[in-house]
Structure formats: structure tokens, C-alpha cells
Amino acid sequence: PRVHSINRIREFTPDLILYSIMSPQFLENIERNLRLKAALPPYIALFGGPHATLFPEMINELGVDIVCRGEGERPLRLLIDNLSSGSTTFDIKGLYIKTKDTIIRNDIEQLYENLDDLPFPDRELLYQDSKYFQSNIAKSIFTARGCPYRCSYCHNGSLNEIFKNKGRVYRCRSPYNVIQEIN
């Protein structure tokens, strides 16, 4: 990260920094995290996304404190609740957690059945600090999760295997819910 970015992060003093990564971004984000760990007060580094789901043993990498496998809404909420209350409970489905003594490898979480139940993302957090996103008239909205196909060139076939017996892999939001978010 650039120096001014590190200074902004230092001013914020985060307890938790999250990375959502695809495999091509793996090394870049591991290196970024190590630079941040050297420059900032101690924080917890959590890695999620497709790479972390497919390769959770990245928990063994230096500087990686937690790996989230699968959908992160529930595990992240439980983790934050535990950290806020001072709890040392580490049995949170979907998380691999590195402690002083060991690595706790929890089972993967069930998939969300009804995507309409999830809150809309707070885009203002993104738009307020980014001139690019403020000026770009095109906005993206996710209307579905998962993929029913098993293309040989894509990671979705492997993800479908990981989520076997964890709910429907391909799920869509209702048209009404998508329109509500657009409005």
C-alpha cells in the first residue's frame, strides 16, 4: 500500500482487516498484509473469497490469522460479536483460526437459502472515498450467488463439491428485492 494509505489505515486503527481474494491475487495480498502488519499496530488479518475457500491451508502463511471458507456473513458476524465481548470461543463454522498453540479448522457453513434476507450493501462507504466510483455512472448489483455449471476452466466445479450437502449452490434474489436495491 502507498504511504498515504497506510497513514489513513493507521489513523483508523482497525482491529480487523479483511481480504477477499481470487487465486491470482493471493501473493499480492499476502505481501500487502505483511507490509501492513509491519507498519500498523496489531490487528487480525482475515482472508476470504474463492481462493481461501478452495485453499484454506493458506492459514499456515505468515500474517494470516483467520481464513473464512464460503459465505462470510454469519461467520464474520459471530467473530465480531465474540471479539467485541472478549469471548475466546473459536468454534465458528466457516472459519479456520490460528491461535498461539494450534489451528482450529471448523466445518464449512450452510449456504444462505434466501438471498432476499440479506441486507443491501452500504455503498456510501465505497462511494464517499472513491472519485472513481463517485463519477462512474455504471453500478453493479449482485442478483445471484453460485453457479450450477462445472466448466473445466473455472473454480466453480470445485466450489460446488465443497458445498455439497450445504444447500443449493445457485440461488437468485427475487426481482422485487433487486428493484428495491436499485431504488
Considering the chains and any ligands shown, give keywords for the structure.
7 strands; two-stranded antiparallel ribbon; globular; 8 helices; five-stranded mixed sheet; 36% helix; 13% strand; 183 residues; alpha/beta
What does this structure look like?
- This protein is an alpha/beta fold.
- 36% of the residues lie in helices and 13% in strands.
- The protein contains eight helices and seven strands, in the order H-E-H-E-H-E-H-E-E-H-H-E-H-E-H.
- It has a five-stranded mixed β-sheet with strand order 1-2-3-4-5. It has a two-stranded antiparallel sheet with strand order 6-7.
- Helix 3 links the parallel strand 2 and strand 3.
- The protein is globular.
- 16% of the residues are buried.
- The mean pLDDT is 91.
Q: What order do the helices and strands follow?
A: HEHEHEHEEHHEHEH
How do the strands line up in the largest sheet?
A: 1-2-3-4-5
Helical percent range?
25-40%
- What is the strand tally? 7
Global outline? globular
N-to-C CA distance: 35 Å
Return residue spans where pLDDT drops below 50 for at least 5 consecutive residues: none
Largest sheet: 5 strands, mixed
